[in-house]
Amino acid sequence: MSVYFIFIRERLRDQKAIDEYAKLAPAAAKGHNMRPLAVYGETETLEGADAQGVVLLEFDTYEEGMAWYNGSEYSEAKKHRHLGADYRLIVTHGV
Length: 95
Fold this sequence. Notes:
Elements: E1 3-12, H1 15-28, E2 34-39, E3 53-59, H2 62-70, H3 72-84, E4 85-93
Antiparallel strand pairs: 1-3, 1-4, 2-3
Helix pairs in contact: 1-3
């Protein structure tokens, strides 16, 4: 069953840190069966707090997604994301 990682950027704090994250994050995808379905496209908030940006990633399984998220390559990249902006990350299972 597919699993989806939904990243919601709530507030940018440091553009340089986010730029570094943007350099490192793509390499972390290598070797993982990840499909980016939406990456900072146009958004419209109909309910709740506004989002500065949204990323939607699909993995075949929860285990695959967590292996990517907890892997050494992405762990190094996400340090810069945490320094650069406030995000919510939601993992949801498909039907």
